[in-house]
Amino acid sequence: MSSCVKLAIHLVNKTPFFTTFATMLTENGVIQYIQAFEYDNNYRLVNAEAYGKNNNYNMNYKLDMDYSPAGRILRKFMRGNKKDNNGVHSFAYDNHYNYGHHSNPFAVDFVENRLGSDEYFEWDQKGNMVYHLDKNTITERRFSWTEDNRLEAVLDNYTGSFYNYDAAGERNYKLTGSTVEVYQNGGICIYPCL
Predict the structure, then answer these.
(1) Which residues, 6+ apart, have CB-to-CB distance to 84 below 8 Å?
(2) Is the dihedral of CA 63, 67, 72, 77 positive or negative?
(3) What is the pLDDT of residues 63-103, one digit of tens each?
């Protein structure tokens, strides 16, 4: 695959506005698309749009972002079309971000998608995510961290990944695969299937 990209930078009311004009050559032909990105005075992305056309379908998306005065994301609205092996599909979400009153004011606790599913998060005192629940796919994911904030384990619906690190902090072991739930002393324990 080869591509040619031209970048144009504009100033609109002294705020940067970037536009890319691109042509991508693929096995199925030429895809031409245009992307535009708009930033606020604090250089945060507030708008992004892209339009493109292939032989049989139009690709596009539109993204709008809203922020609090402190810089937290409050809303992310996106809609467009995407293509995968099953064809062209439209997508849309309208995420509203809710933040809790814990030691990390920028850690989101709850994302409400007003067009679909909700997501919940929990964090430890160091700011590491320890729990994520996606209501759309009914997926619970738990994370474990070492004392120096390295990912140690990830467990979700019957799948797990376990990591070990050497004294220099480099990962030297990774175990990924299925897990089983075992009742031990009246409680559920999750173990890897070896």
Answers:
(1) none
(2) negative
(3) 999 999 888 999 999 999 877 788 788 888 899 999 886 66
**Dist. CA 62–CA 49, nearest whole Å:** 4
For residue 2, which amino acid is it? S
| Phi, psi of 44, deg, nearest 5 | -100, 140
On whether the CB atoms of residues 80 and 67 are closer than 8 A, the answer is: no
Q: 102 by DSSP, 3-state: which?
A: coil
pLDDT in tens, 9-55: 444 444 555 555 455 545 555 566 778 888 888 888 899 988 877 66
Evaluate whether 117 touches 135 at the Cβ level (below 8 Å).
Answer: yes
Q: What share of the chain is helix, strand, coil (3-state, %, to 5)?
A: 0, 70, 30
Helix (H) or strand (E) holding 6: strand 2-12
CA angle 64, 122, 44 (to 5 degrees): 25
Considering Cα of 10, then 65, then 106, then 93, what sign does the dihedral take? negative
Pair 67, 44: CB distance under 8 Å = yes
The reported pTM is 0.69
